[in-house]
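Entry:
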Amino acid sequence: AAMSPQDRVHAALLFDVYGPLLTEHQQEIWQLYYLEDWSLAEIGTEQGISRAAVHDSLERTQRVLQDYEERLGLLAQHQRRQERLRTIMRLIAQLAQESVEVRALREAVAQLAEEEGLAGV
């Protein structure tokens, strides 16, 4: 399953969001292939299945993850929240006035950014 780097990133994000909904078997194969960079043959040997079965499992898992996203849209929502937060953070950085309110606003947005996985942006 040759994937572009962007597709691999998207697949990893989908797995981050929906991975817990997969079977343990699907999770194992996915992690060995995408996170630990094992070959289809190596995974097949480890799992006691054919290389083709590993390939089919990865494709089926990809479809399942994509189906969850199409139905639930959690990844898209998360990415929209991150983009809005980046915009807010840029605007806050431009505020010249250093009032108590501005400091409180910066702190609140920094906490929200950290919760959304944007620490250090």
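The chain is about 75% helix and 0% strand.
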